[in-house]
Amino acid sequence: MRSRFLCAGGVSTMLRVVLTVVFTAVLAVGLVFPALGQVQPKKRVAVFDFDNATVQTQVAIPFFQQTSNTGVLGKAVADLLVTRLVQDSACSVIERKALDKLLEEQNLSNSNRTDPLTAAKLGRVLGVDAIILGSITHYDRETKVKGGGGSAWAPLGIGRGGMTSKQDIRGLVQISARVVSPDTAEVLAVAQATGESLHKGVKTNVMDASVYMGGNTADGGLMAEAMDKAVALLAPQLEQSLVKLPPRVALVDGLVADTNAAGRLILNVGGRVGVKIGDRMQVWRPGKPVRDPATGKVLRFDDSLIGEAVVTSVDDVSAEAAYTGTEPAKSGDRVKGLPKQI
Length: 342
Description:
The chain is of the alpha+beta class.
């Protein structure tokens, strides 16, 4: 009889242990799977052409000069970076055509396009979480003559080995990048990378400038290889920085474009700047400007709150909202949304 009770007690204890383990496992699954389902949205970014002002636009070679085509280098780096970011699926990148169209509409010069304040303004129009700007800080070739008593690396490899020689040609490209806030133009993160490519035993002639300029010669795509390596090292750094960025706070500030008697408003802001269906907007009647008496600069506008509107439909550049207020809204009234995370 005693053994029966012991067995029964043992079974009961074992059953409690099993039930405890099962309950713990079910609880863990319930906690883990919802977390797995909460996928963080990808950051939306715009990549502007990199600045190549530090790259020499002309290289002097004995007996003649040849101008290198450095104008496309900044665009090439941007295109390579976009390809890397998209392939890695680390973020959502604005289509190049959309960016070029906006730049053309704004009639911006190349110098203005790399200005952080201008880029931030364009970033707000595009509705991105961050802007990537950058510079090509080093772009150079060095050569080392094979034999002939010389072995040191030298710019352009001239002065050793006569008019024709075999040389080792090394290309070096260094790139720096900045992640910029579209709201404040603040630099949120920086990255830098260097790419190097080496072609050995290249037969060259000192009279052939294209060897050094990256033309269709034995060095082939030496500088293109170095640039690609630099971008390949730069992209992961930027991806890590983008993932760490906090959710952007969208401050919606737009205008009433059209109204009707039923209280329907058409707004000149939409999904690009974070407007969503259900958003509540304050509607303000523009007032007179308040100026600084010392400088005459406009400090603010003496606007009056006249009502509220709830967004009912949205596209990229506009929204429709239902309005209620103390007086009818009209075209030109300002709409302001409360800060929200997007």
